[in-house]
């Protein structure tokens, strides 16, 4: 991923938050038959340096993945940036449209697994993470027999992380007044995706 210095992010806390905001990741592999991709909700185990997910057993991805390096792409909040939001446009006119966004590329080696205890633990942790904050969170223990039957229909995947590339393109390369102009423009948008990017650009007001 092309990441000029102003947009590079290497703070582990910030990267973890970026992955959490993206939620869904695209697992990309290259095997004998070419590229394969599957979109999955991943659990990021930062302490262990791994990503965990599961997919349906009929999914052919495990057989197509090959033995090489794999990548998971997390695409975070994104928004179109109009040149009209830059105050400096009135001075020079030298502004063009661009796009602000967050993205994380996670690289590593894959392991596919079918061990029921590992699968159950993964489902338990993944569910707990996404049910957190709900007034009546659902848990695997709410449907133990049904979950037990479903375990036979999924395959687990673990990516042992070798490197992470994270990019936050939020107008950091612009003068402060232009950056503020972009944030104001996005904040006034009717599109909630634009407003999310505006909040990321000025976290003190989020």
Q: What can you tell me about this protein's structure?
A:
- With 206 residues, the chain is of the alpha+beta class.
- It has one domain: Pnp Oxidase, Chain A, CATH 2.30.110.
- 31% of the residues lie in helices and 34% in strands.
- It contains seven helices and seven strands; from the N terminus they run H-E-E-E-E-H-E-H-E-H-H-E-H-H.
- The protein has a seven-stranded antiparallel beta sheet, with helices on both faces.
- Helix 6 packs antiparallel against helix 7.
- It is elongated and about 65 Å long.
- The model has no long low-confidence stretch (mean pLDDT 94).
Layout of SSEs?
Layout: H1 12-22, E1 24-31, E2 34-41, E3 43-45, E4 50-56, H2 61-64, E5 70-81, H3 89-92, E6 98-113, H4 116-131, H5 144-150, E7 154-169, H6 176-187, H7 192-201
Antiparallel strand pairs: 1-2, 1-5, 3-4, 4-7, 5-6, 6-7
Helix pairs in contact: 6-7
